[in-house]
Amino acid sequence: xxxxxxxxxxxxxxxxxxxxxxxxxxxxxxxxxxxxxxxxxxxxxxxxxxxxxxxxxxxxxxxxxxxxxxxxxxxxxxxxxxxxxxxxxxxxxxxxxxxxxxxxxxxxxxxxxxxxxxxxxxxxx
Length: 125
Known about the structure:
ribosomal protein
């Protein structure tokens, strides 16, 4: 089963298999299946063509994958262009949502860079 050019895993339940699409989480996958009238526990290999088309039609009305990524990137670019606080945090590669940076924030700032004592430079001279 392929949706938006991405293959949905055959052996997983459809509720979980839809998570491979960018922009679909657990709750959104459930609502898609409920709107399409497909049972939650069914595996993607057991889905009939009629059910597959219903799922596809529900998903087509949503912003997913490349369009969603473009929209998010555009929103961040807009924040940077108008020089908001959040935009400046994005520019400086720091946490945007008020987290502390004295300690932690390793995911955003990268691995620790130990400064050392500077003794090696003094020995060379």
